[in-house]
């Protein structure tokens, strides 16, 4: 363990993760980046996400490697009773389990807590009633796809970001920290269940969307790139570059009209309509006419000219970028959150650590393991299995040891 890892906020905490896909792997990685030792246990050959896109030309999952940085990998046959017992032993020894696996008796809270009463057991499920769900099915039920997209689109528009998985993963990490804090003060364990669907429902409720509907508000309409309740619009420059503009305050809007030379025209519209554009709701209601006035200036100026003018103003703005452009941007290449990572099987690239600094330092990302890379070391270190026992388990397929000839353990 590096000096930085030894002094990280969660140094000394051990977590067993039995998971797949986004939410729980993100939770485990986040806790690991804060200093916890995270042991991910998978079936031999990898779980359902081990070869998920995007892939390298050689078929290795960039996705999997990116969400499992810094973890240790144990690979076992989930159908083998001895392997199931080993997983249970690891959980009991660590004292913290994060999982999205259901229907496995050997991961059941009651059975594990009978062996370790202060166990922290955090499980992500699809729905609170036990039903299955994934981010994209949950999203369909939130209302967002029918309120997203251009105004002239009739069908749903799904976003690319697995927002509910990401939110749920951070809730899972928060749940672990809250439960461990309580354990440290009271000695009590915890069984915490986080339904993915409830994460989405809580979020749209916390943002006021559900209350708005319950109180008789008008249904949310499609507004394209506009920003609900205030003024925001996209513009295109003479050389085809697109920017997003947001004017939240009267000053923002005043600077935008001055920059685009349409202050007099906007004042004439105000007078004709008998409205006051210092009010953001009024700017939203009349967004189409205001956007038309503002876009005219951008059509006559290049992206460089627009960027310089916007930078000299208070207007909130950003140029639309592709993923490739973001990867080459100084926001990535010169950002201390990113560091060069020589990821086996994937290749060297800039990878992010935590999106925060701790005591003025950023976490340095560590490579993700391959399936079973750490099986032998974890079983020896944490369960005290000797080399002969580990080799026997490997030889009959109960576990996968990456390099069985190098297995070492207690004498």
From TrEMBL:
SUPFAM superfamilies: CoA-transferase family III (CaiB/BaiF). One of its GO terms (molecular function) is transferase activity. Gene3D superfamilies: Crotonobetainyl-coa:carnitine coa-transferase, domain 1, formyl-coa transferase, domain 3. Keywords: Transferase. The keyword Cell membrane does not apply. Residues 349-372 are annotated as: Disordered. The keyword Protein transport does not apply. Pfam families: CoA_transf_3. This is CoA transferase. It comes from Rhodococcus olei.
